[in-house]
Amino acid sequence: MFNKGAMPPATPEDANLLPDTELQSIIESHGIRADTTVVVYGPTLPHATRIIWALMYAGVDDTRLLNGGLTAWVAEGYGTESQPTHPTSVDFGDTVPGSPELLVEADEIEGNLDSPNTVLIDIRTFDEYIGDDYHDYITNAGHIPGALFQDWTTWIEGDNTFINFDIISSEWHGLGITEDKSLRFT
After folding, report:
1. Which domains does the chain have, with CATH numbers?
2. Mean pLDDT for all residues in the chain
3. Is residue 118 a contact partner of residue 112, using CB atoms and an 8 Å limit?
4. Helix 45-58 / helix 20-29 crossing angle, nearest 10 deg
5. 35-44, 70-79, 119-128: which has the minimum mean pLDDT?
6. Each residue's pLDDT tens digit, 147-173
7. DSSP letter for each residue of 106-163
């Protein structure tokens, strides 16, 4: 769903969303239609959530996260298999992107920076937020003026599960991030 590369990305293209036609082709090659329920897990929550976002952007109606990943699955006593699965390619059944509003471009963010109804949230680590931890290809370190800082790593428990959303919601309400706001994440 994203350009292939090491994570963290070695170049901007490694973690960028593929063009719509390529994204649709990859999704179809995995046997996924717009009306398929897809449960995603990965080596880390950021990997899995980026894939979920790409599927939602494409228009997959029902995407879910296996909170805790394979470790949680096995801990619950569920089985695993070691042979690869070879899905049959299908027609997606809809136009990609199905939810283009999930992709926000820089000009839209810039145009809404002063809007009282829009909240820009920078969810990177604190070192990234202040411009101290960057990959070689990033030349403009720091954050967008006015962006609220919310380090995504604080939302993860030691067992690779997300903390309860009520805790996150409470933190957000304390920052003025409420349901009536339009949220944009960087």
Report:
1. 12-100 (3.40.250.10), 104-185 (3.40.250.10)
2. 86
3. yes
4. 110
5. 119-128
6. 888 888 888 888 888 999 899 899 889
7. HHHHHHHTT-TTEEEEE-S-HHHHTT-S--TT--S-S--TTPEE--GGGGB-TTS-BP
